[in-house]
Specification:
The protein is an all-alpha fold and 401 residues long. The protein has a domain of 239 residues.
């Protein structure tokens, strides 16, 4: 439970709590029975499948280049859901873990507002990087995505509540969190995620009240209105149109290492890496050394040096090939099917988490980042098996496909 509280806040605390979780699981009663039961959970099985793919990829890297990657943290992290499932067998504890994450993300949003109004000092890094203004513990993309997850939790609770006061309070809180992400943090990745995420919740709202062609018409109308409202926001319009256009032009004309320019460069340099081993890739953790070797042969490439290609599919194609990407896509689809069978509010919460992960992965390498990876894995590991345990939530609704 505390591990999810720490995940969006502090890396050392997250690692320490995971270590303590392992000790508690091993020292607890009914060890074998708990781990056997955990091995039957769909999410655990999915992560173990991906662990197998990454382990085979590490073996491939070792055989092909004598560069062992068996210590890669992202591979062993796939075992965390098994660990969590062996500990939190009671659904109420999983809800408490989700609540712990919500509290942590909510505290970050609160402190961020206090920073904006001058009641809490800005971090020192904000003086060097203005984009880090109003960030509390993490960088702006990490904080922005955590805020969108919190917003989705609040909307899911409001959608499933049978108490008017609680619905209104949850929706107001969700709006406050959304304003923080859109107006204060201004992460471009957050803006990319917003459209499919809001589209999902519009669909859920409309599908509950209408059906057939009326549902499509109302949903389409609301999506158009939402796009217009978002586009009228100056920060979104500037970050998503003016800024990207200027960055791309600067890169194409003068090879300046702008944010968009670096991503274009990474695509250009990674595609040949993929073409050299398209089926099974080069092996786990091999993109960076191959990329660095390419950069040494290109004068003036130092500003474009990064640790990953800033795009989830590119990294998988380079290291695990088309075969790995197909397995990854199949696992995401299987997770989506599993989530669609859950009861509300967990269905809305975890569908939103999947949407956020997939959409954000179009512009960032989430699996390569400690915070993004741990937040996603630990949240997915805590899918509650039972209904919402607190008063006022859990009104029966017709299931929405």
């Amino acid at each position: 439970m505390l591990t999810l509280f720490a995940a969006p806040l502090n890396k050392p605390a997250t690692n320490i709590l995971l270590g303590l979780s392992l000790l508690c699981s091993l020292a607890g009663a009914d060890l074998v029975a708990r781990w056997r039961a955990a091995l039957r959970e769909p999410v655990v099985i999915g992560f173990l499948v991906w662990f197998s793919v990454l382990f085979a990829s590490a073996l491939h890297a070792w055989i092909g280049s004598d560069a062992p990657a068996f210590g890669e943290a992202s591979m062993w992290g796939c075992l965390y859901p098994l660990l969590i499932a062996s500990l939190l067998r009671d659904s109420r504890w999983r809800w408490r873990a989700l609540a712990a994450f919500a509290v942590a993300a909510g505290l970050v949003v609160l402190i961020s507002y206090l920073m904006q109004f001058g009641l809490v000092p800005q971090r020192a890094v904000a003086e060097i990087q203005p984009s880090m203004r109003n960030t509390v513990f993490k960088e702006y993309t990490q904080q922005g995505l955590a805020s969108l997850i919190l917003m989705s939790m609040l909307v899911a609770v409001a959608f499933n509540s049978n108490e008017r006061g609680l619905r209104i309070a949850a929706l107001i809180a969700a709006a406050v969190v959304l304003c923080n992400a859109v107006l204060l943090i201004q992460s471009r990745t957050t803006y990319i995620v917003l459209l499919p995420l809001l589209g999902y919740w519009i669909y859920r709202l409309v599908a509950h009240r209408f059906s057939g062609w009326r549902m499509l018409m109302v949903s389409g109308g609301l999506v158009i209105v939402t796009i217009g409202a978002l586009w009228s926001t100056p920060s979104i319009r500037e970050r998503m149109l003016s800024s990207i256009t200027e960055e791309v032009d600067s890169y194409l004309v003068a090879q300046e290492p702008t944010s968009s320019g670096i991503r274009l460069w990474l695509w250009q340099q990674t595609l040949p890496i993929i073409a050299d081993a398209p089926v099974f890739g080069h092996g786990l953790n091999q993109w960076e050394p191959i990329y660095m070797e390419q950069m040494r042969a290109i004068p003036g490439s130092e500003p474009f040096i990064t640790g990953h290609p800033h795009q989830e599919a590119l990294l998988i194609l380079a290291e695990e090939g088309v075969a790995g990407l197909l397995v990854f896509a199949a696992l995401l689809l299987a997770f989506a099917v599993h989530v669609s069978k859950l009861r509300d509010p967990q269905k809305g919460i975890f569908a939103s988490i999947l949407i956020i992960y997939v959409a954000a992965g179009l512009a960032n390498g989430l699996w390569s980042n400690f915070t993004h990876r741990h937040v996603f894995m630990l949240l997915m590991a805590n899918i509650p098996l039972g209904s919402f345990p607190w008063h006022g939530i859990g009104r029966a609704r017709e299931s929405t496909p």
